[in-house]
Amino acid sequence: MFLPGGREFVILRGEIGHKDLWAIDLTSGAARQLTRFSREFNVRDFDISADGREAVLEQIHETADVVLIQRPRR
Questions:
Q1: What is the pLDDT of residues 53-68, one digit of tens each?
Q2: What does the alpha-carbon distance between residue 57 and residue 65 come to, in Å, rounded to a whole number?
Q3: Is 61 exposed, middle or buried (0-12, 13-18, 19+ CB in 10 A)?
Q4: Among 2, 24, 39, 44, which is least packed by CB within 10 angstroms?
Q5: CB-based contact 39:52 (threshold 8 Å)
Q6: pLDDT, tens digit (0-9, with 9 covering 90-100), for 17-43
Q7: Are 48 and 65 in contact (CB under 8 A)?
Q8: pLDDT at residue 62, as a whole number
């Protein structure tokens, strides 16, 4: 998923069974970690709002909750 401006791409990155959201700068190749979930929080899929301020995550868990993450305005 591209963040607004089209210069950064957001991916799930990590180990099997535990991943976090990372933004990759397509110009420099630099990566920055956007989330730091606990080991028990296993993300299967995600979506980002058009303005890039919110992310919705799908957690792999029998009794999972919906989680909304909002990025602060810059």
A1: 899 998 876 665 677 8
A2: 9
A3: exposed
A4: 39
A5: no
A6: 889 999 999 999 999 999 999 988 888
A7: no
A8: 61
